[in-house]
Amino acid sequence: MHKISMPYLKPLGVFLAVMLVAGCSSNQYPPVSADQRSVEVDYDYVIGAGDSMEIFVWGNQELTTTGIVRPDGKFTTRLVEDLEASGKTSTELARDIEEAYSEYVKSAVVSVIVKSFKGVPVQQVRVIGEASKPLSVPFNKHMSLLDLMIAVGGMTDYAAGNKAVLIRSFEGREDTFGLRLDDLIRDGDISANVTLFPGDIVIIPESWF
């Protein structure tokens, strides 16, 4: 029997713990460390399930096509079925398509243009709990906590924003940090803003009283 890894169990456990202590204590987690507050995160976007793409074949309009990466991470063109797309950059996928087309087209030149973005989970930023619209947001370079909160429409009236936490995997370890969302959003304290990393999880608990 195959064992199934469940990487979200630990973040879920942290979420439940935060929900239990919210409303009756101050944030028990340290703030985001100084070396991570304003660091520039450099990364290459990789294609994920749900991404919309155009496959452009230079000089061969008949083979130019558009489509969406399936939930299994694969993509079908007009010549080749079930190309693995998820987890690859657009350049890597273009080279794979050129190789696959080499049986049918001499010296095919292919470009992959990503039209809409979902991304893979490790390149998304997720918000759960008392956000107005809890969801997963594709990570953008230079993305900040304020950008994320705008994307999710802020917090509900029942949110304990200064007891929110950030779960981050960084340099092979997983850390949990305290956030000051009330200070950032409701008081306009920009010092509470932090740089986000791909894969970050923000948990906003409910204020019980």
From TrEMBL:
User: What are the subcellular locations of this protein?
Assistant: Cell outer membrane
Q: Which residues form the signal peptide?
A: 1-27
All copies of the Polysaccharide export protein N-terminal domain together span: 40-115
UniProt entry keywords in alphabetical sequence: Cell outer membrane, Ion transport, Lipoprotein, Membrane, Palmitate, Polysaccharide transport, Porin, Signal, Sugar transport, Transmembrane, Transmembrane beta strand, Transport
InterPro entries hit by this protein? PEP-CTERM_polysacc_export, Poly_export, Poly_export_N, SLBB_dom
For membrane topology, the record states: Multi-pass membrane protein
Q: Does the keyword Transmembrane apply?
A: yes
Q: State the name under which the record lists this protein.
A: Sugar ABC transporter substrate-binding protein
Query: What residue stretches are annotated with the SLBB domain?
Result: 123-204
Origin species, per record, is: Candidatus Litorirhabdus singularis
The family note in this entry says:
Belongs to the BexD/CtrA/VexA family.
Q: Which NCBIfam families does this one have?
A: pepcterm_export
PANTHER family from the UniProt entry: POLYSACCHARIDE EXPORT PROTEIN GFCE-RELATED (PTHR33619)
